[in-house]
């Protein structure tokens, strides 16, 4: 099926894998596919998404990862506090014992990747798709076939996401109301592109 993907759609799937890796996810989820689209979709489709309040930056911020240099965010700190662990005190202790940049040095660099994508002391470089992400890719094919189009474009992948977004992607897309509105706009976008 992957051979039916057009260039940008194929690059979006590859970008989804990179997003999952950067976000340290053990699998490629629907929200990673959405992030991949936000990076690799045609400019007109990215503009359409931005007009609906969805940009890569906003999506990353919503996922709690944009602009955070810290491995743990505010939600994590609150959860730890509820069981008696003060994350700020832990950070201060680490910095006092190991230096001010101890937490930055703890994040693996690109140099820690070995041959063939295998990470030293870690898991193999291939990241599997979740069942939901696989379903989105299958739905992308169905959307293209339903429109009698031979290749799967980024718009078809987005339609697949809109049909089976999963809870995280659904929230990023503005819930059921946003999904319904965006679905109509994507069909119009594909009609104009054809």
UniProtKB/TrEMBL annotation:
Residues 2-193 form the Clp R domain. One of its GO terms (biological process) is proteolysis. It holds the Pfam family Clp_N. SUPFAM superfamilies: Double Clp-N motif. Coiled coil: none annotated. GO terms for molecular function: peptidase activity. It comes from the Bacteria. Keywords: Hydrolase, Protease, Repeat. This is Clp protease. It comes from Nocardia jinanensis.
